């Protein structure tokens, strides 16, 4: 880690910054009286739950706050200049050139109808840097610097043709185009699988070391913090509650909120044991799914074996984890089980019946027995329907009387830890963790025998994630349902699963109980996944707290 000298003039200094929220909400301020410094050559991690104000303060630095939010008081001193006193034209000239930002979702940050090369070049054209052929040379140089393969070909590609990790590298290349002295990274690895995440973290560390820039890294992942931070600032409900070196905050947290966050971090302890039911709910045998693309006049046909000869079984009351990188085939298995896509071979024996061979009409009565919890609870909930209708629509469609369905919905809301008043409210009135609880209640409304959870906690804050995981474990024990838990987070899989299968390029490369998979991996790919876990040498269960 880079050591900083507190006696030096800070690159960035925030002093008593407050940002007021519109009247009528639960809080008066998005950010209230926060102060901290960032030095050149330092990585400062800002951590906290959703709504803590960490991204709001980062957007204030860049001058990207929504129009209805204005800093109420305070200073943001960048290289001695108060950014809050500069006009928009001056700020526009500084963005990209002196300070740059890497956003959480690279696909949203990139123009889908512009090539990668044109988008990086546009940054330089706006600031009138690298004229003519020098601009194209600089684009190739940046793509090579961030570790992208074959830059000469990649410059002509569109964002949708790149993987998530490649798109994030492109966004980083854009941010580095004019070598800014301040880089703000807002949750840049949240949606990435563990190996891609490790690559992006290593890239940011290398860039920071080589360029000597100051990096503000906004995250809710304490593993990431343990991996890259020099110093850590912890925010709660708009207030800075703790700041110190990474060693101090991670191993000797002083504030109760910091301690609660760290105690919620998945610790990777295996969940072996505790399951004794031998009744098999699902038996998958030699499952195959192939995608064919291209084959036009100017392109060759491309065959992708998304699921290649996969077999596994799940018993009542058991949780099976399916882990692997993006593109490993784990989510495709979930779609096959829900009959959201067809299969090309193999069997899916559900209660002894091969659902792979059923027509849609034959399978329709069985849909209530197999339900899914989706990754993005907001996108999967109809924003125009009340929570009550969202939960009752499924049972009513299968013939349950409306009154009985509504009574059951209220019971389920209580079961997942929501108040009865949630029944008449809309999804946008809930937090991300609460929306995920609504999604779980909807899935349980049809009393399924099998739940498929596809990355259902990957986008949640660490404390909310811990609550949802505990909720799933409690519900499974109480209702004796089978659960397939699809995830790229190996620590979470170790904590909740009875059995784990590891997938790589459509095939199962290793299977067994979590203790064997994580403590004694047999396959090279499994070992690479475990080695890539951020902050794996930091054990949150061993922290020493203030008296």
From TrEMBL:
<dbReference type="InterPro" id="IPR027417">
    <property type="entry name" value="P-loop_NTPase"/>
</dbReference>
<comment type="similarity">
    <text>Belongs to the ABC transporter superfamily.</text>
</comment>
<dbReference type="InterPro" id="IPR003439">
    <property type="entry name" value="ABC_transporter-like_ATP-bd"/>
</dbReference>
<keyword id="KW-0813">Transport</keyword>
<dbReference type="GO" id="GO:0015833">
    <property type="term" value="P:peptide transport"/>
</dbReference>
<dbReference type="Pfam" id="PF00005">
    <property type="entry name" value="ABC_tran"/>
</dbReference>
<dbReference type="GO" id="GO:0005524">
    <property type="term" value="F:ATP binding"/>
</dbReference>
<feature type="domain" description="ABC transporter">
    <location>
        <begin position="12"/>
        <end position="262"/>
    </location>
</feature>
<dbReference type="GO" id="GO:0016887">
    <property type="term" value="F:ATP hydrolysis activity"/>
</dbReference>
<dbReference type="InterPro" id="IPR013563">
    <property type="entry name" value="Oligopep_ABC_C"/>
</dbReference>
<keyword id="KW-0547">Nucleotide-binding</keyword>
<dbReference type="InterPro" id="IPR003593">
    <property type="entry name" value="AAA+_ATPase"/>
</dbReference>
<keyword id="KW-0472">Membrane</keyword>
<dbReference type="Pfam" id="PF08352">
    <property type="entry name" value="oligo_HPY"/>
</dbReference>
<keyword id="KW-1003">Cell membrane</keyword>
<keyword id="KW-0997">Cell inner membrane</keyword>
<keyword id="KW-0067">ATP-binding</keyword>
<feature type="domain" description="ABC transporter">
    <location>
        <begin position="282"/>
        <end position="530"/>
    </location>
</feature>
<dbReference type="InterPro" id="IPR050319">
    <property type="entry name" value="ABC_transp_ATP-bind"/>
</dbReference>
<dbReference type="GO" id="GO:0055085">
    <property type="term" value="P:transmembrane transport"/>
</dbReference>
<protein>
    <submittedName>
        <fullName>Peptide transport fused subunits of ABC superfamily: ATP-binding components</fullName>
    </submittedName>
</protein>
<dbReference type="InterPro" id="IPR017871">
    <property type="entry name" value="ABC_transporter-like_CS"/>
</dbReference>
